[in-house]
Amino acid sequence: MSPQDTLSGESISNEVSQEKYHGESNENSDENQILVGQAPAKRIVPPLNFCPVERYLYRSGQPSPVNFPFLLDLNLKTIIWLANEEPQDSLLVFCDRHDIQLQFAAINPDGGEDDNPWDGLTEHSIINALQTIVDQDNYPLLVCCGMGRHRTGTVIGCLRRIMGWNLASVSEEYRRFTGSRGGRILVELLIEAFDTNSVKIDHNRAPPWLLTALEQPE
C-alpha cells in the first residue's frame, strides 16, 4: 500500500469517526430538545421599561391589562405608584383582586388643581417611597410611574446612593431607561443632592441585598 493510499485511508477513517461523533452528539442533543407545536395561549408581556433592580425589587412603566399575567408570576405584594393622578382603573381593579398593596407616592399632595402632573418628585415623596423599599415585609415590590423613566429613575437613583454607588454608575443606570431624549439634568442633580441619611433603615427588616451593600467599605 502506497503512502498516498495510507493517507487516504486515514482521511476516510477520520471522516467516518467524525460523522459518528457528530451523529452521537446530535442524538444526545435531540433528547434534550423540546418541540413546541404552537405558541402558548397565555401571552407573557412585561410592562414598558420593566427591569429587575435587586432580588424581588422591580421597576417599570404603568402596567396595562396585557401585562397582568406577567405580574402575577412575580407574586407582587406592593406596587409603588409615583404620580399625583390615579393609575388606570384596570390596575386598581387588578391590585384589589389580587390583594396587592398600591401605595401612592404623591409628587406634591398639596398642589391642588394647579399641580403639574409632569413635575418631578419632591424629597418628601422620594423618602416616602424609599421607606417602603427598605422594608422587606413589602416584597416582592414594583416601583412604577407613567413611562418608568424619570420618576422611577429618581427613586431608584436615590436608592443606589444609599447603597453606596458612585454618581457615574447611578447616572448611567438612570439614562439607560430615558430613551432617545436622554436624561433630565434636574433629576440627576436631585439624586446627587439627596440626603441618604433621611431614610431610616431597620436592619432587622431590610432586604439582604441592602444589608450587604451597607456593609461594603466606602
TrEMBL record:
CDD domains according to UniProt: PFA-DSP_Oca1
Q: Would you identify the family this protein belongs to, as annotated? A: Belongs to the protein-tyrosine phosphatase family.
- Its name, as the record gives it, is Putative tyrosine-protein phosphatase OCA1
Where found?
A: Cytoplasm
**So what does this one do?**
Putative tyrosine-protein phosphatase required for protection against superoxide stress.
* Segments forming domain Tyrosine-protein phosphatase: 49-207
Keyword Cytoplasm carried by entry: yes
Naturally occurring in which organism (per UniProt): Zygosaccharomyces rouxii
List GO molecular-function terms, semicolon-separated. protein tyrosine phosphatase activity
Q: What PANTHER family would the database entry show?
A: TYROSINE-PROTEIN PHOSPHATASE, TYROSINE-PROTEIN PHOSPHATASE OCA1-RELATED
Compositional bias (Polar residues) at which positions? 1-16
